[in-house]
Amino acid sequence: MILAAGQGTRVRPLTKDLPKPMVPILGKPVMEYLIEHLARHGIKEIMINVAYYHQRIEEYFGDGSRWGVEIGYSYEGVKEHGDILPKPMGSAGGMRKIQDFSGFFDETTLVLCGDALIDLDITAALEEHRAKGAIASVVAMDVPREEVSSYGIVVSDADGRIQSFQEKPQPRDAKSTLASTGIYLFEPEALNLVPSGKVYDIGADLFPQLVATGQPFYVQNRPFHWIDIGKVSDYWSVLQRVLKGEIADMHMPGKEVRPNVWVGLNASIPWDQVKIEGPVYIGSSVKIEPGASIIGPAWIGHGSIIRSGARVTRSVLFDYTRIAADMHFNEMIVSRHYCVDRHGDTLYRGDDSTHLRWGDARG
């Protein structure tokens, strides 16, 4: 089960016109990496709950056959005044809706958020879940104590049985340093505790119920890469790590034409008149004019244009973005319509408060 019905408000404007799982990483939606990872571990039946901009997800992923899996969708919305409006039912409520409709969750189910990158050993996690006889398991990882205030913290006994949760505690108050990663394993019986037809959340509602009723509910402390794109600053950091090659199973597309510089098809680059320092990925049909420079880690989306004298430093250009001559974009995410710095501050094209100029390369 991939949870993909959220609105993604914390990463605006990246989600201004697309759902958060469709935010691109090296030209691929973040959820595509999740589906590829599930397929590698033999998980071939995938349900996705959708709401906001659901068509973008459904049209891109279709029936899943491109990845060797089978994908189904569950739309969460209501009809009001003749219009169909998104209305997410909560992570657990969305699963109960599917269960009431078809009984899909008839065996052990892995639940993932559609907006994170992981390289979890899913096979090992399933084995531990079954060995403990758990009705539900939370996959967690140790974080430094000074960072616990950014996470939901899991408190367990010596055997890993969950006793309680702390939501973003201060370091001095934290009873644990195990952070929930939003990756769960459920037996079908767990969904019997979720009321039908109600908005119900896994973390806020179902988990306290499992603890209160004394269910066999365990935490797994696993070493793996888990990169949650919770904020715009997280997205910028993720891209920097990907470009540096720090994330397993995420490989640069294109051809490595120079050390740490990958280029797609049909790119126009006067190599003896530009400065490019990797790691840099330059997409297909990109034009870089003489006198321009790119300092990595950087990703230049396909169809983009970097005009003469412009500098792009540790930044990301979405597809078909034009950087005007002599402009310097430093540590930014730039689209045709807006640019966001690494801290989440946003400027829009034509804004009189900035000297920066950029636009649509197709114009």
Report on the architecture of this protein:
- The chain has 363 residues and is α/β, with parallel strands linked by helices.
- The protein is built from seven helices and 31 strands.
- The mean pLDDT is 90.
How would you briefly describe this protein structure?
With 363 residues, the chain is of the alpha/beta class. It has helices spanning 30-40, 54-61, 91-102, 122-131, 188-191, 202-212, 232-243; strands at residues 2-4, 24-25, 28-29, 45-50, 70-75, 77-80, 83-86, 109-113, 116-118, 136-142, 152-156, 162-167, 178-186, 217-221, 226-228, 255-258, 261-263, 275-277, 280-282, 287-288, 293-295, 298-300, 305-306, 311-313, 316-317, 321-323, 328-330, 332-334, 338-341, 346-348, 358-360. 42% of the residues are buried.
List keywords for this structure.
9-stranded mixed beta sheet; 7 helices; 363 residues; 8-stranded mixed beta sheet; alpha/beta
Measured distance between first and last alpha carbons: 41 Å
How confident is the prediction overall: mean pLDDT?
90
Compute the number of helices.
7
The helix-and-strand class reads alpha/beta
**DSSP E strands, number:** 31
Main sheet overview: 9 strands, mixed
Strand content: 25-35%
Low-confidence parts: none
Helix content: 10-25%
Rg, Cα atoms, Å: 22 Å
> What is the global morphology?
globular
